[in-house]
């Protein structure tokens, strides 16, 4: 690839990772506090899994967007260029919705509204895949893991909503962002109504 193409690829990946960074600002503080207090289903994945999964998905999304973006320079017809612009706008819209979910779920603690937002996001991803497929089939295929994960996340979000919609969550005091080092090398933060440290893995 040419130097300009590499710059486009890196830029596309950074933009997508930026959506994850915005979401993490609300996620990291909520997990050891509010998120610890709500009921969860048995199939809830471990918290550590979400980071690597989303990082990988954002990379794939960036590559997908790059394939569409790079095709713009190769397009000679004005109508084709218009389709590419529309496709990138739709992609950008779903990326905004992606970041917005973390704000609603972890930031505002609105599980039901977060599920409704996920439904809209799912539909926008499907629309993105449809318009991408008309320009680049590989770009569309790169979004398959994304739509599958969001489908699972939607089911998980719905289940969390059903488990907690009648549950009264007590008002939590603001805990400090201190961390305690565990014997296995991991760190735990303060949580719960009294801001006590979360037990270390393996401790009872």
Explain briefly what this protein structure is.
The chain is mainly alpha-helical and 204 residues long. The protein is 68% helix and 5% strand. Strand 1 (179-181) and strand 2 (187-191) form a beta hairpin.
Structure report:
With 204 residues, the chain is mostly helical. The protein folds into 2 domains: 3-164, TspO/MBR protein (Ferritin, Up-down Bundle); 171-204, no CATH class. It is built from 7 helices and 3 strands. It has helices at 3-30, 34-37, 47-74, 78-107, 111-133, 137-141, 144-164; strands spanning 179-181, 187-191, 196-197. A 3-stranded antiparallel β-sheet has the order 1-2-3, with no helix packed on it.
Please specify the SSE layout and strand pairing.
Blueprint: H1 3-30, H2 34-37, H3 47-74, H4 78-107, H5 111-133, H6 137-141, H7 144-164, E1 179-181, E2 187-191, E3 196-197
Antiparallel strand pairs: 1-2, 2-3
- The CATH first-level class of the largest domain comes to Mainly Alpha
Structural class label: mainly alpha
Number of helices: 7
Strand order of the largest sheet: 1-2-3
**Helix-residue proportion:** 55-70%
Number of domains: 2
Largest sheet: 3 strands, antiparallel
The CATH architecture term of the largest domain is Up-down Bundle
Question: Proportion of β residues?
Answer: under 5%
CATH superfamily of the largest domain: TspO/MBR protein
Number of strands: 3
**Contiguous uncertain segments of 5+ residues:** 169-173
Distance between the termini: 55 Å
